[in-house]
Write a structure and sequence with these properties.
This protein has a domain at 213-295: Immunoglobulin-like. It has helices spanning 8-11, 98-113, 121-127, 137-144, and strands spanning 23-30, 41-47, 55-61, 67-71, 81-87, 151-155, 175-178, 185-192, 213-215, 227-233, 237-245, 250-259, 262-268, 275-282, 288-295. The chain has a 4-stranded mixed beta sheet with strand order 4-1-8-6. Strands 3-2-5-7 form a 4-stranded antiparallel beta sheet, with no helix packed on it. With 298 residues, the chain is mainly beta. Strand 14 (275-282) and strand 15 (288-295) form a beta hairpin. The termini are far apart.
Length: 298
């Protein structure tokens, strides 16, 4: 039997949608290729208003095109809320061979080292394997232990405040709207956690800008106290300097300094106890460079 869809504009001419059945769609698309992600589970919940709890829970499994169709409860009105949450947590490797896994681990490490920073929003999202809103050595440990959900979903309508730092704030993995503002088809873009190398050119990128400054290696390295970085700025900028330990915890935060165009020497404070650390220099647009430093014994 052919399914009939009622256009949303027609439905909204009523104070209640109970008179006619209305069908909506939710779809999961791969971030780069735009192809549908089959067997995505969609949790669809409804609430009478913002003060009411979500109920009428529906668990729906997408078809090969990554989409599911869902109808509204018989008493739903235009001010009711719908929450849509997609997940896909099957096989942690999900197509990643052992060789692919190693290549992606090395790529995340190069980002942490500052030798090849990520430039695409989807890379940041995929590298945040433990979903804590930051890319640190802990993400490499999480990926190596395969203790990850397979996919990360973001509503296509979500606006990244700063594409250079797309994890701040961390984007939601769900969508909440009133029925009156719900599109006939709601799209989610998804990345596979840990897969930061794509063989497909990204049609939807939101490219982050590469920092407009270059840096030298830290020296001395290893160090028994502080260390220095040579900066070369193409344009004047305010730079914030930080140091993180191997777990990703910030241990040094030095106040932002204004630097003119040209070469400068910046001195970092000692990171503390002996061990392995990361330094990070961020400009006023949120673009940054990172590198490694070893703090030895005096």
């Amino acid at each position: 039997m052919k399914r009939h869809y009622i256009h949303l504009a027609f439905a909204l001419t009523y104070s209640s949608l109970s008179a006619q059945p209305v069908t909506f769609q939710a779809c999961a698309h791969q971030w780069c290729s735009g192809s549908g992600i089959s067997e995505t589970t969609f949790l669809v919940e409804f609430a009478a208003d913002a003060q009411s709890p979500f109920s009428n829970v529906n668990m729906l499994l997408s078809s090969d095109n990554g989409c599911v169709a869902f109808g509204l409860p018989s008493t739903t009105n235009t001010n009711a809320l719908v929450r849509i949450t997609p997940t896909k947590d099957a096989n942690p490797l999900s197509g990643l061979t052992t060789f692919d896994l190693q290549l992606n681990l090395q790529r995340i490490q190069r980002h942490l080292d500052g030798t090849e920073p990520f430039t695409e929003i989807w890379q940041f999202l995929a590298a945040d394997c433990n979903l804590d809103g930051a890319i640190t050595p802990a993400d490499i440990s999480t990926l190596q232990g395969l203790e990850i959900p397979t996919w990360r979903f973001v509503p296509a309508s979500f606006q990244f405040i700063n594409p250079a730092q797309p994890l701040i704030p961390s984007p939601p993995g769900f969508l909440v709207k009133t029925i009156g503002t719900l599109n006939s088809t709601e799209i989610f873009r998804a990345v596979q956690l840990g897969r930061v190398i794509s063989g497909t050119a990204c049609a939807v990128t939101g490219t982050s800008s590469i920092p407009d400054f270059s840096v030298s290696e830290a020296w001395p390295n290893p160090t028994d106290a502080g260390f220095s970085i040579q900066l070369n700025l193409n344009t004047a900028s305010e730079l914030l300097c930080e140091v993180f330990d191997a777990s990703g915890r910030r241990v040094v935060l030095q106040r932002a300094h204004n630097f003119e165009t040209g070469e400068h020497l910046y001195n970092f404070e000692s990171p503390g106890a002996s061990g392995f650390y990361y330094w990070k220099i961020t400009d006023e647009s949120g673009r940054y460079r990172m590198g490694k430093i070893i703090r030895g014994e005096k």
